[in-house]
Specification:
The protein is globular and about 40 Å long. Strand 1 and strand 2 form a beta hairpin. The chain has a five-stranded antiparallel β-sheet. The two termini are 22 Å apart. Helix 1 runs antiparallel to helix 2. The chain is α+β, with helices and mostly antiparallel strands and 138 residues long.
């Protein structure tokens, strides 16, 4: 691991434990993740707490991609990866590993949330407390 990556990881840990405002902490973490993992956009969606499956309150970097997450919230039931998200352990996965490329591109989820914004791939991290899903970072 190079020095810059190590410093960014230290900053992420610092933000998680020392920033009082939850939304500010999430925004800082997503911004720092983009410094480590180059990507078009990054986001965090938390759950409502009801059954741990309903996502809400998107934080995106850059802000202009927040519309993607609002669209996802509307159609999240059609997301073919929800079975992975519902597991009670943190998991990192690529959406392309869960469904063949041609089939994935035909899904309502892909057509509504990815295609209009020029996004093709996604890597997701489920955030859990060991008992339930708390959120997801993409």
């Amino acid at each position: 691991m190079d020095f810059n990556t190590e410093m960014n990881l230290n900053s992420i840990i610092y933000q998680i434990y020392n920033v009082d405002d939850f939304n500010e902490m999430k925004r800082s973490v997503v911004t720092l993740i983009r410094a480590i993992i180059p990507c078009t956009c990054a986001s965090i969606l938390m759950t409502t707490g009801r059954d741990g499956e309903i996502f809400c309150d998107p934080i995106t970097v850059p802000d202009s991609y927040e519309e993607i997450e609002h669209e996802y919230i509307k159609c999240q039931d059609s997301d073919g990866s929800l079975w992975v998200v519902r597991k009670k352990q943190s998991t990192v996965f690529r959406d392309t590993d869960l469904m063949p490329e041609g089939k994935r591109e035909q899904t309502d989820y892909y057509q509504r949330c990815f295609k209009p914004f020029g996004i093709h791939y996604s890597v997701d991290l489920t955030i859990t407390d060991g008992r339930k899903i708390m959120g997801i970072m993409s």
